[in-house]
Design a protein that fits this description.
heterodimer; A: alpha/beta; Rossmann fold; 4-stranded antiparallel sheet; 9 helices; 12 strands; globular; B: 10-stranded mixed sheet; 10-stranded mixed sheet; nucleotide-binding (chain A); ATP hydrolysis activity (chain A); Fe-S cluster assembly ATP-binding protein (chain A); ABC_transporter-like_ATP-bd (chain A); AAA+_ATPase (chain A)
Chain lengths: 250, 437
């Protein structure tokens, strides 16, 4: 059981190639981190996996437990078990957070079956408590007027509620102060399990102090250029991204 | 009040007859109104107030006066569902009262108009249709005045706050039936009331016409909330004219939901006649298929220190069409005016069409006024976000369009009322989902 990305190439509508052959395997039960400088293609990778229509896949494959997900629509991929925690979550005016998450859960049920509202709210409140989110966030419009930290917590709340098989967290640490980061990490760590794979995309090592990865990949210019254990993140932190230049040449 | 006319008579051909027991002043008003109707020319393309309008919709010759009420009204009564436990509930079919249920205190006068004319003729005369219709429908207002036979009269005495909601259901039944319902609400000083009019059709395929008028007179310091939920079938044409006068320190809210009708014309006029008065003008329209909604508004600041705030939102599906024309008019001396006007169109289809004509005329100093209109397609970023959570594209678009409307509905400030409005809105969305409109 794993999320397997093989020789993935993707380009923008104007033909600019961003992913130039990414190969990566995230087995269920493991937490992987991708680090890399700005513009290396980290965020693009997360968007391509979740099906963003702004990118065209020109070669390669992505499979989820053996199933080709590149053939699936955006929402099918989500229902199949891929979750992307957005770096910049959209605001959806007039749609309450509670109704939004409920619609997402409802979408996973067979036709004609209604979500149990009482059980839903019980579960929602439990998860909000874990993330130290005020109850008022259930009635507020999705992400509208939320601070950066509140938006990130809201992403993790959705992840906790949807219980995906594979979680991709795109720069979840950016814009968080240390207290918010700890709370977010608590939520993510609560999701770690032997049947779930996680991919953390981050620019800084800081997040990895709170969420210990099993494997660290370094991405540069659209490719994975180095893979190692947690010590690789520390090495990057120490040497800076300049040290990638040697790797890319090699 | 003409109970014995041939049901085949066109509403345009035969002069209406006021019921003999009604006051003489009212009979005279109806007679004069009929004359005015005959003499007033029909609107043309050159009239600014009918710019972009579909004038073909104004041929009312095929509608019939006095179409009888169906024998069995059981299903109509059963489907007259508004807010949970209303303060009072009235059900009219073709302007005939068929059901009444009131828990109102005795000092509140709340009566079918036909009865109010008999029991409180002086009170009605003081407030009934006193203003000139300025937004284009003078001819149709005259036709309404000439033909109106019923509706609701509400008079809340000074200092009385009506708990809950007064509801009025106006049903159209029978092919080519026409109704002219009137809602007249007068609030005394420091009083409070909320009235909801529901407009519906008994059958989905019968053509109908409704020329409705609501007169809202908010007395000093009072709070008057009026909602119109227009959910006729798609064969019906509607003209709905609103006149609101807001006295010193009073607050009036007028809300309209348009989900039904083939064509609906709304004219809303708020006159802020007292210092510190406030008028909220709100509208949500969800036209689909070939539906057309044509809305004209006027925020008239007569007194200084008053506030008016207009927010109209349209979600347009299929080949739907909307027109919004609004004017903020600040009189000389109406200093410290706060006036806002916003019309937003959300395009759910590339074939839909929206015209927005915001306007502003200021003759006073020290005013805060803004007006604007926006038109946009649904944001791809929002769609992607919802789909990335597993919500299919159709449902995602629906949630966003609903959310767009909810922003207006939330301003009603009462949970039970908001739920009721949302029920009608969701009903419309589910019909859009089902391929109908």
């Amino acid at each position: 059981m794993s999320l397997v990305i093989t020789d993935l190439h993707a380009q923008l509508e104007d033909g600019t190639e961003i992913l130039k052959g990414v190969t990566l395997e995230i087995p269920a039960g493991e937490v992987h981190a991708i680090m890399g400088p700005n513009g290396s293609g980290k965020s693009t990778l997360s968007k391509v996996i979740s099906g963003h229509e702004g990118y065209e896949v020109t070669a390669g494959s992505v499979t989820l437990d053996g199933e080709d997900i590149l053939e699936m629509s955006i929402d099918e991929r989500s229902r199949a078990g891929v979750f992307l925690a957005f770096q910049y979550p959209a605001e959806v005016p007039g749609v309450s957070n509670a109704n939004f998450i409920r619609a997402a859960l409802q979408a996973r049920l067979p036709k004609g079956q209604e979500l149990d509202a009482v059980a839903y709210y019980k579960s929602l409140y439990e998860k909000m408590d874990l993330l130290e989110m005020d109850r008022k966030f259930t009635a507020r419009a999705v992400n509208e007027g939320f601070s950066g930290g509140e938006k990130k917590r809201n992403e993790i709340l959705q992840m906790l509620m949807l219980e995906p098989k594979y979680c991709i967290l795109d720069e979840t640490d950016s814009g968080l102060d240390i207290d918010a980061l700890k709370i977010v990490a608590k939520g993510v760590n609560a999701m770690r399990s032997t049947d779930r794979g996680m991919l953390l995309i981050t620019h800084y090592q800081r997040l990895l102090d709170y969420i210990k990865p099993d494997v660290v990949h370094v991405m540069s210019a659209g490719r994975i250029v180095k893979t190692g254990g947690p010590e690789l993140a520390l090495e990057l932190e120490e040497k800076g991204y300049d040290f990638l230049k040697e790797l890319t040449v090699a | 009040m003409s109970a014995t006319l041939e049901p085949t008579a066109s509403i345009l051909d035969l002069a209406p007859e006021t019921a003999p027991d009604l006051p003489a002043w009212f009979a005279e008003r109806q007679r004069a109104a009929w004359q005015r109707f005959l003499e007033t020319p029909a609107p043309t393309r050159r009239d600014e107030t009918w710019r972009f309008s579909n004038l073909k919709q104004l041929d009312f010759s095929s509608y019939l006066a006095d179409v009888p009420v169906p024998e069995d009204t059981g299903s109509i009564i059963e489907t007259s569902v508004g807010v949970e436990s209303p303060a009072a509930k009235y059900i009219f079919v073709n302007e005939t009262l068929i059901e009444i249920d009131s828990k109102l205190p005795e000092n509140v006068i709340c009566l079918p108009l036909a009865e109010a004319l008999l029991l409180h003729p002086d009170l009605v005369e003081k407030t009934f249709m006193l203003q000139d219709t300025r937004l284009g429908s003078a001819k149709w207002a005259a036709l309404h005045e000439a033909r109106v036979s019923n509706g609701l009269f509400v008079h809340v005495p000074d200092g009385v706050e009506v708990e809950g909601t007064i509801e009025v259901f106006h049903w159209l039944a029978g092919d080519r039936a026409a109704i002219f319902p009137h809602t007249l609400i007068v609030t005394g000083a420091q009083s409070k009331v909320r009235v909801i009019d529901y407009f519906q059709s008994a059958e989905s395929e019968q053509e109908g016409l409704c020329i409705a008028f609501n007169d809202l007179c908010a007395g000093p310091g009072s709070k008057l909330d009026y909602l119109a939920i227009q959910a006729f079938n798609e064969k019906t044409r509607v003209i709905q004219i609103n006149e609101t006068g807001v006295a010193k320190e009073a607050s009036a809210t007028g809300f309209i939901l348009n989900t039904g009708a083939a064509w609906a014309r709304n004219e809303a006029m708020s006159r802020l006649t007292g210092e510190g008065s406030r008028s909220d003008m709100l509208s949500v329209s969800v036209p689909a298929r070939e539906q057309e909604f044509d809305q004209r508004t006027f925020q008239h600041h007569v007194s200084p220190g008053a506030t008016s705030d207009l927010l109209y939102k349209n979600s347009l599906y299929d080949r739907a069409r909307t027109i919004f024309s609004g004017l903020i008019f600040v009189d000389e001396g109406a200093h410290r005016t706060d006036a806002y006007q916003t019309c937003r169109n959300l395009f759910m289809s590339e074939d839909a069409e929206a015209h927005s004509m915001p306007g502003l005329e200021i003759n006073a100093d020290d005013v805060k006024c803004s007006h604007g209109s926006t038109s946009a397609q649904i944001s791809e970023e929002e769609i992607f976000y919802l789909r990335a959570r597993g919500i299919d594209p159709h449902r995602a678009r629906q949630l966003i369009a609903r959310g767009f409307s909810v922003e207006v509905i939330e301003r009603l400030g009462d949970e039970k009322v908001e739920e009721t409005v949302l029920r009608f809105l969701d009903d419309k969305f589910s019909r859009i989902a089902g391929g109908g409109a």
